[in-house]
Amino acid sequence: MAQLIDGKRISQEIKDELKVKVAELKAQGKTGALAVIQVGEDPASSVYVRNKKNACAYIGIESLSYELPKETTQQELLDLIEKLNADSHVRGILVQLPVPAHIDENAIIRAIRPDKDVDGFHPQSVGAMTIGQKGFLPCTPAGIIQLLKRSGIEIAGKHCVVIGRSNIVGKPMALLLLHENGTVTIAHSKTRNLKELCKEADILVVAMGKPRFIGADYVKEGAVVIDVGIHRNENNKLCGDVKFEEVEPLASAITPVPGGVGPMTIAMLMNNCVESIAENEG
Ligand code: BQF
Predict the structure, then answer these.
(1) Ligand 1 mutation pick, 39, 47, 266, 272, max ligand atoms within 8 A of CB
(2) N or C, where is the chain less crowded by C-beta within 10 Å?
């Protein structure tokens, strides 16, 4: 029987800590808002945006909502970001991804002032993270590090296998595990012998984006399994990249979907917002 890594409980713990910090900052006259921009009405994105606004309300920071039609031009979006960059009350700017195909995602990310880049996606944030300097960390990988630490799972010296190499999860995850002194392997769709490689992992982080792909045959007995996947099945229920019921008996610890990594992403976003408010000089 594996230890269930309860992301819902741990994220709640973090939000409660942040709520106290926000009240202390307010007493010092330090406040600020998170601007949340959504272009179009993708239903999954709408859920994520709502989760973020609810979390802001819970910890006591203001959120500003920008719901733009899907026909919004890149220039219009850039103009809005420029306006928010210049607004000293706005301490975080978040553009919910993905944006419609006619908008260049990288151009949008580059336009956000790095000191308001609470998603940690700006090249300056990525560069700082890469060399271990100060800057906002991407929320999902930072959340996974917190999950491991707060569950008493040691990373140093462990063989960590990350499946997936996206800019948002896989690549930064590998770097953060490396900073914790893990021995890291990144696997991806072109990796040969994926199964054998995964079986070597002490900590397996699965971010491949394939529903219920990883079964017991990919997991070493006693491994820690972190499932970043989030999919809806035929019955509209959430599932991950891991066959939970098959892997759970084998693992020493495992995250569920829902209630594992997902809530931690939101908690780390809130952490970045609070940091941004704390460091704001004007
Ligand atoms: C849970 C996201 C893919 C692409 C873009 C709690 C979230 C999800 C699940 C959530 C995600 C995934 C977010 C649960 C934000 C995580 O209880 O399991 C919260 O809101 N997420 C996003 O903003 O963009 C995504 C996944």
Answers:
(1) 266
(2) C
